[in-house]
């Protein structure tokens, strides 16, 4: 039996930045995201008669650090569910560049956990799938669900209450997230290393944690009220706070490129002219712009002057995982 799964990536409106437990990947704060419909991973899993797992990225078999991460991840399932003798072939591909601040690990590990859990017939609930996805990459726990999603950081030490739930589904609100690919080469600092260094050395990190509850409340309310201005203003401020902690980490972390800043200024300019649009940036140089669907063509035309057309992807809210 081959299980084939598609999961979408997600972009945080209120970011996760900092781990409580690095092995369990439990976060120091809750986060809220929007799952996107056009950036996804497709992963298939099959139990094979072999002494070891086989991992293929884009149809090429790999035995490197990345494939080892996948094998280690499958081990978690094998150990927890007494399936030690089961070896698995994984074939996975993204439809977008890996490790470029486009949250490839979010769709990657959520697809992998759904595929592995199902090929091993584990009958896991969505909550359990969210928890297992989190063990691969924190933000992956949010990609189990479509639409608007909150990851509750949880309180207990074993991480069993640290998982995502859906706030509203993908059909709820006519928004676009315009993904502007400023840079699609692999970033030189992973988010795991970046957030660890920030927690350890940034003098402003406590302020990040002190102000997060207010951001979460605003964005939750903004979603429930369909108030784009409330969601957007808070999202933008939250992003700038996260990047400020990165800038003031020792040594400093600066993911932005000149075009990142150019797009930030353009978004602010468009807003001054009356367009309701807001930016956010993850651990990379790429910018995502949140706006009403009706406004996205107008915004695209302006970004067109900064980036080539094929570097701009207009996304809507996407679904949770699907078997294909
Ligand atoms: O889960 P990771 O290791 O991909 O970290 C994600 C970190 C950010 O993208 C910057 C924020 C977020 O909440 O997605």
How would you characterize the overall build of this protein?
By secondary structure, this protein is α+β, with helices and mostly antiparallel strands. It has two domains: 2-172, Ribosomal Protein S5, domain 2 (2-Layer Sandwich); 178-316, Alpha-Beta Plaits (2-Layer Sandwich). Helices cover 36% and strands 25% of the residues. The protein has helices spanning 65-80, 104-119, 126-136, 191-201, 205-224, 228-247, 258-272, 296-303, and strands at 2-14, 19-21, 26-27, 31-48, 54-57, 60-61, 87-94, 148-151, 164-168, 175-180, 277-281, 287-292, 312-315, 322-323. Strands 1, 4, 5, 6, 7, 8, 9 and 14 form an eight-stranded mixed β-sheet that branches. A four-stranded antiparallel β-sheet has the order 11-12-10-13. The chain has a two-stranded antiparallel ribbon with strand order 2-3. α1 packs across α2 (104-119), α2 packs across α3 (126-136) and α5 runs antiparallel to α6 (228-247). The structure holds (3R)-3-hydroxy-3-methyl-5-(phosphonooxy)pentanoic acid (PMV). The site of (3R)-3-hydroxy-3-methyl-5-(phosphonooxy)pentanoic acid has 14 residues, from α4.
Task: Name the structural class.
Answer: alpha+beta
Radius of gyration: 19 Å
Please trace the helix and strand order, writing H or E for each element. Answer: EEEEEEHEHHEEEHHHHEEHEE
Mean pLDDT: 96
Low-confidence stretches: none
CATH topology of the largest domain: Ribosomal Protein S5, domain 2
Biggest sheet overview: 8 strands, mixed
Ions, cofactors, ligands: which are bound?
Answer: (3R)-3-hydroxy-3-methyl-5-(phosphonooxy)pentanoic acid
Number of helices: 8
Helix content: 25-40%
